[in-house]
Specification:
This protein is mostly helical. 63% of the residues lie in helices and 0% in strands. Helix 4 runs parallel beside helix 7.
C-alpha cells in the first residue's frame, strides 16, 4: 500500500517526491509530462521559456537604467551612457550566474539583496509619503484604467517571477522541515500580495498619473 503523504504537502510536491525517489529530482517539465503527457511537457517548456525570456529582458533593462543613473550622478553628468550600450556587459555578467546549479552559492548575495531592497523600499516609501504630503497628485484617482490593462497584467505576472524557484527551494529544504514548506510558502505569498497591493496603491496615490513603471526613478537626484 502506498504511503500517505503528509497533509501539509501540495499535490505538486507530492508528485515531485514520488518521481524523485531513487533518481534526480524532476524538473517542471517532468512534472508536466507526468500529469498531461508529452503535451504537458511542451506546454510547460513553452511557458518557462517565454516567461524567463521576459524576466531576463526586464532585468537587463532595469539594471542598465539604474546603472546609467548611478554613473551620471557620480560623474555629475560629465560622463553620459546610452542605456543600450550597457546591455552586452550585463548579459556577460548574468549568463555565468545562470549556470550555477545550487541555491547555496547565492546565500550571501540573496541576504545582501534583501538588505538593499529593504533600504530601497523604505526610501521610496519616505519619498512617496513626503510627496503626498507636500505636493499631492492634482488629478483625481482612477481606480480602474482599462487602457493599460495588458501592461498591468504583465507587471503583475512579473511581480511573481520567483515562482519558478519553488521546486528548487523545496529540494534545498532540510527533509525534516519539508512538511512545513507549503504553509510557509502560502503565508509568504499572501504577505507579498498584500505588500504589493498596498505599496503600489500608496505610490500611485502620491504620484498619480506621473507614476513611473520603475518607481525608483522617483527618488530625487543630488542637486535636483
Amino acid at each position: 500500500m502506498a504511503k500517505k503523504s503528509p497533509k501539509h504537502t501540495s499535490p505538486l510536491m507530492e508528485l515531485q517526491a514520488a518521481m524523485g525517489r531513487g533518481r534526480n529530482v524532476p524538473s517542471y517539465s517532468d512534472l508536466g509530462e507526468a500529469a498531461f503527457g508529452s503535451l504537458g511537457r511542451s506546454l510547460v517548456d513553452s511557458c518557462l521559456i517565454s516567461s524567463q525570456l521576459g524576466f531576463a529582458a526586464t532585468y537587463i533593462i532595469f539594471i542598465s537604467a539604474n546603472l546609467r543613473e548611478v554613473v551620471e550622478v557620480l560623474s555629475k553628468c560629465t560622463f553620459l551612457l546610452e542605456q543600450n550600450t550597457l546591455f552586452p556587459a550585463i548579459v556577460l555578467l548574468l549568463v555565468p550566474l545562470a549556470w550555477l546549479r545550487s541555491l547555496k552559492y547565492f546565500a550571501v548575495m540573496n541576504f545582501m539583496a534583501a538588505v538593499f531592497m529593504s533600504i530601497g523600499l523604505s526610501a521610496i516609501a519616505y519619498v512617496a509619503g513626503w510627496h503626498w504630503y507636500t505636493d499631492p497628485a492634482p488629478e483625481p484617482v482612477r481606480w480602474a484604467n482599462f487602457d493599460a490593462f495588458a501592461f498591468t497584467l504583465g507587471t503583475a505576472v512579473y511581480a511573481f517571477e520567483g515562482i519558478g524557484m519553488i521546486l528548487p527551494m523545496y529540494e534545498e529544504t532540510d527533509p525534516a522541515l519539508r512538511p512545513q514548506f507549503k504553509d510557509a510558502l502560502t503565508q509568504t505569498l499572501i504577505i507579498l500580495l498584500i505588500l504589493f497591493v498596498l505599496f503600489a496603491s500608496f505610490c500611485y496615490l502620491s504620484f498619480g498619473a506621473q507614476t513611473q513603471t520603475m518607481v525608483l526613478l522617483h527618488l530625487p537626484l543630488p542637486g535636483g
